[in-house]
Amino acid sequence: MLRAFALLLLAAMVSGCGFKLRGSDGQFNMPFKSIALGFALTSPLGTELKRNLRAVGTEVVDDPAKAEALFEVLGETRGKSILSLNAQGRVREYLLTYTLVFRVRDRSGAELLPPTDISLKRSITFNERQVLANESEEALLYRDMQTDLVQQILRRLAAIKPV
């Protein structure tokens, strides 16, 4: 009986329905062939977005006049605030935030994507005896939020309807 159930479960898993989210395979169809990014040259977020755009076949150009689309960064902030305290009044958890506000315009200046705000939050526990480990974990969480932010930007860029 158990064997039959296991075989039935295995058959159901193998046959799967084929459901797949749009863009979940990492392939995005951008509505433009080239884009200029408004990030500073040293921005890690800009570097990762540039790499991902090139991976999906979109040319990233430095001169906005040569680009079909212009990605403008209106604001990028990272924050850290106290989330909870322990009984002695010391910090137990922090809330890390990463916010990006941007818009996308075409070559003529028409707005393809209005100002868009993406805000990510992660909580991190704090132990005063392990300060270096906490700093490493914080850096890792910011890097994870950056990757998540890039994926959300790519999905929003792919959803733009050309004018």
Automatic annotation (TrEMBL):
Molecular function terms from GO: lipopolysaccharide binding
* GO biological process: one example: lipopolysaccharide transport
Q: What is its main location?
A: membrane
Q: Which domain of life is it from?
A: Bacteria
Does Signal appear among the keywords? Answer: yes
Q: Provide the alphabetized UniProt keywords.
A: Cell outer membrane, Lipoprotein, Membrane, Palmitate, Signal
One Gene Ontology CC term in the entry: cell outer membrane
Which Pfam families does the protein's record reference?
LptE
Transmembrane residue ranges: none
Q: May I ask which residue range the UniProt record assigns to the signal sequence?
A: none
Q: How does it sit in the membrane?
A: Lipid-anchor
Specify whether Transmembrane helix is a keyword of the entry: no
Family statement drawn from the similarity comment of this UniProt entry: Belongs to the LptE lipoprotein family.
| Subunit | Component of the lipopolysaccharide transport and assembly complex. Interacts with LptD.
Role of this protein: Together with LptD, is involved in the assembly of lipopolysaccharide (LPS) at the surface of the outer membrane. Required for the proper assembly of LptD. Binds LPS and may serve as the LPS recognition site at the outer membrane.
Q: What is this protein called?
A: LPS-assembly lipoprotein LptE
- Gene giving rise to this polypeptide: lptE
